[in-house]
User: What shape does this take?
Amino acid sequence: MSTRVVPINWADLETAFERNAPDTESFVDLKSGDVVTVCETATDYKEVRQKVQNGGDQFLRVEPAASREQYKWMERFVAGVTDEPLRERLIISIDGKGAFRRFKDVLINYPAERERWFSYRGDILHWHMQKWLEKEKIEPKEPAPWGVAPEPPNEEVVLERPAAQAEGPGEILRRQAKELVDNIPAVELPAAIAFLEFLRERGIAELGRVRSLPPKRTAA
Assistant: This one.
């Protein structure tokens, strides 16, 4: 196969590589460089699918990074987090179904680590794109805006899960409340804080009222 020079749309290709949904496929138009996305739930699904099928070799299917591989990226990132409480929260967040969403939710409240994650993930994603282009013998007409991606480390990491501790009902409820507050959008925090302060003051007032009640008299 000879090398093909293609005017790559880098932003769209990057999106196609990070998208990994069972009902969605992406193809690069080797003539225009555009990325065509075929989604089963889209209203124009049949039309776009037919266009790709009729195009033959003009359309090359994108091979996005597998979910399992992207999960390993998270594990390696978490292993490098130096903030121990945050690392423990991230380890818990990536355990089980919905790991990607919970992982992002935790990082929302840590902007510095969130930016570090995006940079870390971007470098790995760009490396995968670079290797795919080389494998398919595609020479981009314009170089990637991020330059040449460095080869990422590929070592296996083993994350130690935090030791399970017995929690009382109160501790469990406080932890759940804290997790909810952590995931509230910043614009809604003033209202949430005001409501929590109202509950605290009401609780203090109720406790004071109970303490001020006279003791019950017992029957003679």
